[in-house]
Design goal:
It is built from four helices and no strands. With 131 residues, it is mostly helical.
């Protein structure tokens, strides 16, 4: 049985079980260059070389730009999907309004009542399943 202090997060663990020794880390930093390039090339690895200390506004802006770019790469597709899902309902309602008043009423009820009810059920099940 494993001890609690020996536990490694599987998402943070690398494929290799050993960490880089300080000499290898130093050589890697010199090869990649201390700064933004080293941080961006070896992201999401447990053996990654950390960013150098931020000593001024220029360093902060550079690292902020690098980390922001990484964040947008991860969050951008989720934002696009959410925007597309919500705009699909609006576009459907606009086109239904061109057909007839009854079609507009039906789509409007679906968008507000039925879709809202299903969203509420989803949220409820999420809250029940949380530990």
């Amino acid at each position: 049985m494993e001890k609690d202090n020996d536990f490694k997060d599987p998402f943070l663990a690398s494929t290799e079980e050993e960490e880089l020794d300080p000499a290898t880390q130093k050589a890697l930093m010199e090869y990649l260059g201390v700064g933004s390039r080293a941080s961006s090339l070896v992201s999401f690895s447990s053996t990654a070389v950390d960013i150098p200390p931020i000593s001024g506004v220029g360093d902060f802006v550079r690292e902020f730009r690098i980390e922001s770019r990484k964040l947008w790469k991860l969050a951008g597709p989720a934002i696009f999907t959410t925007m597309s899902q919500y705009s699909l309902g609006a576009v459907t309602q606009v086109f239904a309004g061109h057909i007839s008043t009854l079609a507009l009423a039906a789509v409007s009820i679906e968008n507000s009542v039925i879709a809202g009810f299903s969203f509420g059920i989803m949220v409820r099940f999420t809250l029940i399943c949380l530990p």
